[in-house]
Amino acid sequence: MGSLRLSNVSKRFGKVVALKNMSLEISDGEYVVVLGPTGAGKTTLLKIIAGLLKQDTGEIYIDGVKVDDYPPEERNVSLFFQNFALFPHMTILENVAFGLKVRGYDSREAENRALEALRLMHLDNRAYSYPRELSGGMQQRVALARTIITGASILLLDEPLSQLDAKIKSELQYELRDFVKNLGLTALHVTNDVEEALALADRIAIINRGEVVQVGTPFEMVEEPKDVFVAGFMTDMNLMEGIVEEVSTNSVIVDIGNIKLRSSRKGSFRRGEMVIVGVKSKDFKVQKADGELVCRIEDSIFSFKYRKLIVCFDNGLRVQVKTDKSGLEKGAYVSLRVDPNDVYLFPCPKGGLRAAIAEITGVS
Ligand SMILES: Nc1ncnc2c1ncn2[C@@H]1O[C@H](COP(=O)(O)OP(=O)(O)O)[C@@H](O)[C@H]1O
Ligand SMILES: [Mg+2]
After folding, report:
1. How far is the CA of 40 from the centre of ligand 2 (A)?
2. Is CB count within 10 Å lower at the N or C end of the chain?
């Protein structure tokens, strides 16, 4: 068993609020990714759950039992550290077995378990190598073996794939999920990498400044972001400041410096209100210039499956468009179309769009 519940957990370091009334429930066997920019409170959260750090207020329950007064080794959790380090002078096997020996397992039992964990990570044939003889991806697997060996049902993974290059990362990503699922473990994995979260998670919890902003399946997070922060973090939406010009029963027209976009997504907005308009780059359709939403192609960048256009309107507004059309040359004039159902509207956050974007990129 391995269910986990956080109830209103808060933690501050002096003036810094690292976690603020954080509540989150994870079912037995679920893979949950907590996603947030650097400084959002992810490592603090895992340390508190692991018992390495004490929260100021709130409770933690594991399998329904309040564990706030339990020491780390009695919590049924195992933590993979963000900046893991293997002991350079120990073999892979010794590295993995070390934690068990420290806990009083006899040498043979510890090494048998370590070998089993290495087998799961497809590394048993490297048991007698030294860390320096292994690639970065392999070392990461060793660190994972060390995390799972304890037999805990809940894995707490702090950016476990962050030090890997893209190709190894995507391989290990699927292995990691498979492995957690096959062993029936529960995973709480924290990262600032959106693609990683989308690929791995049963559910994603996005956090910002120590608070949960939204929880949902990867699909829900991408299709129904609840505010500008989530939209900007999870998707490649073009975000634009606009003013609500007209409100009718089923749609809202927004003016973005003389560019009018109609949105038919639900939400309540008032005439004259400042809003943030969001359109995903794939949802702009490019067609021959016809007098409406005319813009000029400033740049055209070829990518794997599509072309990314940077287009500029007369009023200076720039947006990104993904298209699979060919023959769209730099300097050409085109018109854009967008289905009103693909035009997202969000209340304008305090400080406007600029402040929201700074928060997403972690620059403040
Ligand atoms: N031991 C500490 N002392 C003071 N401030 C800390 C300490 N640990 C974390 N913080 C602060 O708490 C906030 C959250 O940090 P952290 O949990 O490490 O975020 P993340 O892992 O999401 O990058 C940051 O502002 C960080 O500077
Ligand atoms: Mg961290």
Report:
1. 8
2. C
